[in-house]
Amino acid sequence: MRSKFLPVAIACALLASVNAFAQEYPVANKTITFVLPYAAGGPTDKAARDLAQAMSKAMGGHSIVIDNSAGASGSIGANKVAKASADGYTLLFTHIAQATLPTFFRNLPYNVEKDFEYIGLVSENPMNLIGRPSLPANTMGELVTWIQANKGKINIANAGPGSASHLCGMLFQSTLKVDMTSVPYKGTAPAMTDLIGGQVDLMCDQTTTTIPQIEGKKVKSFAVTTPTRLTAVALKDSPTMQEAGLKDFSVTIWQGLYAPKGTPAAVLKKLNDALKVSVKDPEFIRKQEGGGATVIMDARNDPAGHKAFIVSELAKWAPVIRAGGIYAD
């Protein structure tokens, strides 16, 4: 006769195995991978690499590498993590697209709220409207005049549907009530290359990427997307969108860290503890602030606060995206 205590014994053995795994995590010879769903060289790539370095330090020098799995506006990389083993060694580092792709894509292969564990938000970046160096306009006022005079002829680059640059560009067009040709790329790095080369006219990008190009006089800066002006030297003469007459125009782009659903709670705690140490690391803070980013140090660093914020962002951006009428299958 089968013992009625056998299922209990099996459950206890499994629990002991999970606890042992969590205590050992991370195993010394097993690398942790941050999957970044965008091309190398962009602002989110930089933030991911900075965090990987800081978290490696916080975890006793454990190896953390970046896997750039770009494509489909970031959904390829995100899906890769959603379907990965829930062991804490494959994590997703992404930005605001985590709250916008569910509306952009009718058939997204994963569920943002159900298929991930939330580790914590890391930083947020203001954005900057920039233009090709040969653009005839030099100020925001001149740019608006030029746009109005060239309706139907202007194109604006972005990192793909649902990306931060796309959202900013959509908001810019809707505020001006002018349609522009959207030119999607697999990340803002290749988009920046074409902007510098004059193949596209405009782009919204995070200040972590725009500042070096502005300093090198490779692009023109027209405005920033924050409620107040930024202190970075390269942007000291750039007005806010609101100063330029675009009422209530404000966009900041946040980055966060996620694990596959089902990752053991003890593993998530170790990752969250390392993240909280990292966002207080002076070197990490210096690197983020050097590019105009703000390191997040509030309830959003916690898994519960992170998820609550994502839910609010999903509600915030869904109507904006639907009003634009741009969807992908």
TrEMBL record:
UniProt signal peptide: 1-22
Check the record and name the Pfam families matching this protein.
TctC (PF03401)
Q: Does the keyword Signal apply?
A: yes
The protein's matches in InterPro entries, at most eight in alphabetical order, are given as: BUG, Bug_dom1
Keywords noted in UniProt: Signal
Stated family: Belongs to the UPF0065 (bug) family.
Q: What is this protein called?
A: ABC transporter substrate-binding protein
Which source organism does the UniProt entry give?
Answer: Limnohabitans planktonicus II-D5
